[in-house]
Known about the structure:
By secondary structure, the protein is an alpha+beta fold. The chain has helices at about 5-15, 30-45, 65-80, 90-95, 100-120, 130-145, 175-185, 200-215, 220-250, 260-265, 270-285, 295-305, 370-375, 415-420, 425; strands at about 20-25, 50-55, 80-85, 125, 155-160, 165, 250, 255-260, 310-315, 320-325, 330, 345, 350-355, 355-365, 380-385, 390-395, 400, 410, 430-435, 440-445, 445-450, 465-470.
Amino acid sequence: MTFEESVTQFIRNHGLIHPRMRLVAGVSGGADSMALLQYLCGKRKAWELELAVCSVDHGLRGVSGREDLAFVASFCQRENIVFFGKTVDVRAYCTKKHLGIEAAARELRYQAFEEALGGFGADALVLAHHGDDQIETMLMREVRGRIGIARSGIPVRRPFAGKELIRPLLSQTKSALEAYCAAHGLKPRHDATNESDRHTRNRFRKQVLPFLKQENPSVHLKFQYESETIAEDEAFLLRLAEQQLGSVILEKSADQVKISVPDLLIIPFSLQRRIIHLILNYLYTNRKIQPMHQSIHIENLLQLLRSGRSSGHAVFPEGLSARKSYEVCLIGFLSRVVDKSYDIVLRVPGRTLFSAGTIEAEFLPGGFCVGTAVTGPDSIIIDYHNVAGPLRVRTWQPGDRMMPSGMTGTQKIQRIFINEKIDREKRFIWPLVVDGKDSVLWLPLLRRGWRSSLEVQKREACYLKLTFTPIDDLGRIKA
């Protein structure tokens, strides 16, 4: 089978090009893209194609870059092909966007492709990635621990700028493209940077590919088959994972996702990984950050969630992290722990506002019935004349203890938090009501102190009712 027959068969098998399509080819002037352009020129009449070319000088190679652009323009003029040429300043773009050279060059190149698509009214962008590129990409991603559909390497087709991006040469080798150029008398341009071992891809190309091809000259076809198989399998597994998301997510915002650990862990392992992957992609995308997580990051988090530890955290690239607390895990761009402590004198009577909520203090007449006066764990009644003033509300401090009502000894506040499975972060803002001697009278929503009134009062006294309303859900009641 000839080169052209092989490419045509690949195109037909994947339904990439149809008669009377309007196509823009991305052409650099190198052997790969010139072979693509020559092939499309040969099919232009038979398939009634409307053809245009987009070429970009990245401004990185001085005269050589300008000569590449002129070379492609000359070919297009000779073949009567619409030409879109553009020169960009990659280094300036790097500085402006805080990107590396390769990432900046790619962004600017694809911006130019999008402009050409719109200007030509094209149906698709055609690029010249080939089988050797596919091998390099899949191996590099495997070594770096990429996950999910990224393991499939370069897709045959994908959406782009409201149209399609297609790659009809993925079944061909680099040497086949060079031979095709030579057979048509083409003298492609040569980019010396493709020889530098400074680039990871070049090291794979020069050191790994020759060995693979020696073992199997058709190894590129094996990798292309694996690429398409992985893509199909991953698409199916992702659909299953998406169906399970609703049963796992408890709360969701643009920056954070709270999940139920038990509900996640009853799902098959393969879907657990993909659910975490979907959540991470969602969070990164909302921040307009390219997802950088790898398989090791997801496995570290799942190892934490599957462990018997009640709490812990995992770290992801770009400032994203996860924090487990008992049966809940919060994933997102979480704020670092900062000092949220407070110590405020209560207004008696009156309303006191602080960072965790409000406490309303009101005096009650003697002879009241606690059963009607106290509404739940958000309230306490104390004999105001039997406590040292002033009453204060403050945050927990290490070593704090209290004597809960009904007990004969004291208990550490920290132990109460642990027994009640209070999230570690919430402990630092949870209010304590203390008297003038700094004795803990009340741990709102959790424990009343021994000096609270728990039965009908008949003697003359001055009873004070305190009611706590949290500003946020503290895991016990909502405001």
